[in-house]
Specification:
single chain; Phosphorylase Kinase, domain 1; alpha+beta; globular; Transferase(Phosphotransferase), domain 1; 17% strand; 2 domains; 271 residues; 5-stranded antiparallel β-sheet
Length: 271
């Protein structure tokens, strides 16, 4: 099923990209057709070669994973098909079109009971587990990259994905709030750096805030590398050991696989 018919009028509504990303030439828009909203992502023809290559890599990953449960429904349209549409910005080569999914907003999380939060986090873990089992790292996990599709969790933004054990072909461009300490020291992304990012997400689900706060890259580095893992509220302390094993400063002290993390969560459920 196609999400957009390029031969029909498209209403361009809201640009979701930050001013910085717009300056770099990457755009995400909410569009509407026949009353149905969609998300459209593209890079402009003024974007750098590196950014255009990154977007091409992301499109390739969507195609690679299109049959996987964690991959959302999507549509890719190339330049020769959409020259007739009137976009607010000149599009370089292709558009990625996604359904308008429900995001895990702070308000939604705040209204959830604990058991619902844990169910969602388990689904998030299983999605990342499936990515790793296929031999890939996401390398830019954050709560905004997980969306609800009815009762399923879908994973978004494949631009930073790299093969496990081989990240030399991509420049690290992860989100500092979710970066493992070793990444600030120049190490390559790994299974453990994905698990660290999941630790930040787990803390957010439970506490509605990030475990560390900073204003710039250098401050984020100091927080992740030096500041102790915060304690959870008393009602969540049963999960503190799992959180500590995700957010350990040294890779060797973290869970080494997603299977270990999932088993640890399940053991708490059974205790």
């Amino acid at each position: 099923m196609r999400l957009l018919d390029l031969h029909q009028p498209i209403i361009w509504q809201t640009c979701l990209s930050t001013a910085f990303m717009q300056h770099m030439g990457q755009y995400v828009y909410v569009v509407e057709q026949h009353g149905q909203p969609c998300i459209v992502k593209f890079v402009s023809d003024t974007a750098s070669i590196q950014l255009q290559q990154s977007f091409t890599h992301e499109l390739q990953q969507y195609i690679r994973f299109q049959r996987q449960d964690f991959c959302p429904h999507f549509q890719i349209e190339h330049a020769q098909r959409f020259r007739q549409i009137h976009s607010p910005v000149s599009i370089a080569s292709a558009m990625l079109i996604l359904p308008y999914y429900t995001t895990l907003s702070k308000q939604m999380i705040q209204a959830m009971p604990l058991d619902k939060k844990i169910i969602i986090f388990r689904k998030i873990c299983h999605a990342v587990h499936d990515v790793h089992e296929l031999g890939w790292l996401h390398a830019d996990l954050k709560i905004q990259h997980f969306v609800m599709d009815q009762e399923q969790i879908k994973l978004l933004d494949f631009a930073q994905m790299s093969r496990i054990g081989d990240s030399s072909d991509l420049t690290l461009n992860a989100t500092p709030a979710y970066m493992a300490p070793e990444l600030f020291l120049g190490e390559k992304v790994s299974v453990q750096s994905d698990i660290y990012a999941l630790g930040v997400i787990f803390f957010e689900l439970l506490m509605q805030e990030k475990p560390f706060m900073a204003r710039n890259y250098q401050s984020w580095a100091g927080q992740h590398c030096q500041k102790a893992v915060p304690l959870l509220d008393h009602s969540y302390l049963i999960y503190q050991n799992v959180l500590d094993a995700m957010l350990a400063k040294h890779k060797k002290n973290r869970f080494s696989t997603m299977n270990q993390l999932i088993i640890a969560l399940n053991l708490i459920k059974k205790s």
